[in-house]
Amino acid sequence: MSKRVQKNGRFAFILFALVGGMIGLSFASVPLYRLFCQVTGYGGTPQIQAEAEPPSVSERVIKVQFDANTNPKLPWRFKPLQREVTVKLGEEALVFFEAENLSDKSTMGRATFNVTPYKVGLYFNKVDCFCFDEQVLKAGQVVPMPVQFFVDPEIFDDPTTKEVKTITLSYTFFQAEDETVSDNVTDRSTEVEVSLRAVARDVVNTF
Amino acid sequence: MANEAAAHDHHDDHKPAFWTRWLCSTNHKDIGTLYLATSMIAAIVGGLMSWYLRLELAEPGIQFIDDFQFYNVLVTAHGFVMVFFVVMPAMIGGFGNWFVPLMIGAPDMAFPRMNNISFWLLAAGLILLIMSALIGDGPGTGWTVYPPLSSSDFHPGPSVDFGILALHVAGASSILGAINLIVTIFNMRAPGMTIHRMPLFVWAILITAILLLLALPVLAGALTMLLTDRNFGTAFFNPAEGGDPILWQHLFWFFGHPEVYIIILPAFGIISQVISTFSRKPIFGYLGMAYAMSAIGVVGFVVWAHHMYTVGLSVDTRAYFTAATMVIAVPTGIKIFSWLATMWGGSIKLEVPMLYALAFIFLFVVGGVTGITLANASADLVMHDTYYVVAHFHYVMGLAAILGMFSGFYYWIGKMSGRQYPQALSKLQFWVFIIGVNILFFPQHFSGLAGMPRRIPDYPDAYAGWNYLSSVGALITAVGTILFFVVLWKTLRSGEKVADNQWGEGATTLEWTVASPAPFHTFEDSPDMTGKAPAE
User: Fold this and answer.
1) List of chain A residues whose C-beta atoms are within 8 Å of the C-beta of residue B217
2) Residues of chain B predicted below pLDDT 70
3) Residue B208 neighbours by CB distance under 10 Å
4) What's the pTM value of the predicted model, to 2 decimals?
5) Which strands make up the sheet holding A135-137, listed edge to edge?
6) What is the ipTM of this complex?
């Protein structure tokens, strides 16, 4: 009898461990999910190539359109400074968005992003982006937001993405914290801001 | 308790006093009875909610429920109550507790006291769930509890937290119950009853318990994330801080899809026993039946995203989930085929359990066919969140499960109570119920295809006809349900005594070898099954 009780107990212990393992897996799914999206470009997750070798530039061109959204909780106006650009595959492009804080308080925002069609996520590379960091805007401040990217020429070698002519890069700005940020947060100096705006305008004008 | 149990060793039928027996029970039959009673009470609660919904939906416009949040609270509570507190307790806790030990020739469950905890956790969970609906605005999230609707932005009060707690508690109850059943089935079978000789009901419960063990912890994990998102400032599902609401849907449906098999597999088991008994033949293709259920269990874990075709999955992903979902039709088809083949050439007796089994096959096939339709990602984009989906899952897991439970009830009530159900009244109950549910749910296919959305209390006049018919069906179903409780009352009060094996030669499983009603203690000496035919 006691032998059977022992046997049952050991078996139950294994099953409890299995339950614990499944709970662990459900939490592990958070980093795994992120990793999966980054590796596969799933759901239009762009690749991040901060120190990418400049790829060979192809003669083929692709149109990239821009979409900007703002969560209603964040009192910002956020828009792209150009509707679309046409870039050569493999060529690095610099584009600008612009955000304006409409409230009378400093607020911090963070942008989520993806590209459509989802399947091109693997070939859309961001070299630098305002969305990599949280952004702080003082009351009434207007700031240009740069994005540097290139589209991998391999997009044309992949039979499933070969027919893509237009990619849409989309951002949604969310409030990063519930509390408003205090006004003495170190911010971009006004000169930098002015020069950035000038660059932005130049870039926009060239397209 | 241990001393008491030892003292009772020599006289089988000496039962403890009332309070000890029912509050501290460790006897698998008593706990099974408690589960069945709880399930019936919860069924009344969940049923009343749905009849109130159908009352509101009988005509376009708003007649009874002018608080739309309350409408959604009713929808949510109806779903939770029916899934977690009616079907699961009756199938797994009720019939599982009662008949798994009897069918494998074991004296009781492996962990009788854990069995008691499982039951009382369930009772606590039910009370918490009802409290969640009564506190604050109530959870109007649907049973899927998707964020951001379930986040503190849109459900600020404590009611969603109560609901999460209720599910945690009910989940813990089910996990303990599942561990108990698995250990019992693997370690406590009578000598000679190998895995491949177990009755199919035991197989069904075994696979169900394994699914529970793998799926429920994922729900528990996801619910914990939601709880900390709501209360402790984490951001698992909040995109503003790097989370992703779609992650919830993946986790929820990784649990939610196996959950629908958890609900239907025990019914498969009951139907197999009933069809074999009343065809007076062993089940056709016993091993195929057992492994078809195993296959359904395995494939059930890799099809979850077919509930999420509209969230923006890539084309390849949708193609995979469409194909994988359709694969489930193969083992399910094997089961339907084997049931029909069992009846083929059998000496069929149309007793009430058999009537329910036949109706089960019919309704399950209807639900299965609409399931294949919905499995198509491209078609589902149109039908997502319409009444077509509502009709589909009510046929396949609502009605099929309820019919399985009714079939099991009429099949085993003689063994459980020692008394026979009233024949004529039971047949009337069957016909009223079966006509009622079909009039209730069949028209929802049509209103769904016409575009009627779920979880909305009002609708355009164009949908009025089918909705009116559906509500009439709900009324007939209500009559059928009341008739069931009359049958129950009459059986327990004045039913005739039944023989130990009331179904005769077709009933070959071990529970028919003990007295009716089953004595308090059974199989204290294991029966020797060596060399006997599979007890299917």
Assistant:
1) 19-23, 25-26
2) 1-13, 532-536
3) 30
4) 0.88
5) A84-88, A61-70, A166-175, A107-116, A135-137
6) 0.83
Strands of the sheet containing A47-48, edge to edge, are A47-48, A124-129, A142-151, A93-101, A76-80
CA angle B15/B19/B105 to nearest 5° reads 40
Domain locations in chain A as residue ranges: 3-40, 47-206
The answer to whether residues B180 and B31 touch, using CB atoms and an 8 Å cutoff, is no
Predicted confidence (pLDDT) per residue in B334-391, tens digit: 999 999 999 999 999 999 999 999 999 999 999 999 999 999 999 999 999 999 999 9
| Nearest partner of B263 among B95, B391, B476, B52, judged by Cα | B95
B445 is a catalytic site residue: no
Cα separation of B481 and A105, whole Å? 61
User: How far from the centroid of its chain's Cα atoms is residue B511's Cα?
Assistant: 22
**B335 counts as catalytic:** yes
Q: Which CATH superfamily is domain A47-206 in?
A: Ctag/Cox11 (2.60.370.10)
The pLDDT tens digits of the residues spanning B458-494 come to 999 999 999 999 999 999 999 999 999 999 999 999 8
Do the Cβ atoms of B191 and B526 come closer than 8 Å?
yes
**Tokens at A175, concatenated:** 């409030």
Picking from B221, B250, B315, the nearest residue to A27 by CB comes out as: B221
Q: Which residue of chain A has the CA closest to B111?
A: A8
Q: Residue B398 and residue B389: Cα distance in Å, rounded?
A: 12
Question: Tell me: the pLDDT tens digits for A128-186?
Answer: 888 888 888 888 889 999 998 989 888 888 888 888 999 999 999 888 765 544 444 44
Q: What does A98-120 look like in DSSP terms, one character per residue?
A: EEEE-SSS-EEEEEEEEEESGGG
Pairwise CA distance, residues B130 & B152, whole Å: 20
Closest Cβ opposite residue A11 in set B186, B215, B247: B186
Q: Which of A25, A71, A160 sits opposite B240 (nearest CB)?
A: A71
Q: What type of residue sits at position B46?
A: G
Q: φ and ψ at B169, to 5 degrees?
A: -65, -45
Residue B143 designated active-site: yes
Question: Which pLDDT belongs to residue A140?
Answer: 87
Are B487 and B421 a contacting pair, CB within 8 Å? yes
Backbone angles phi, psi at B497, to 5 degrees: -70, 145
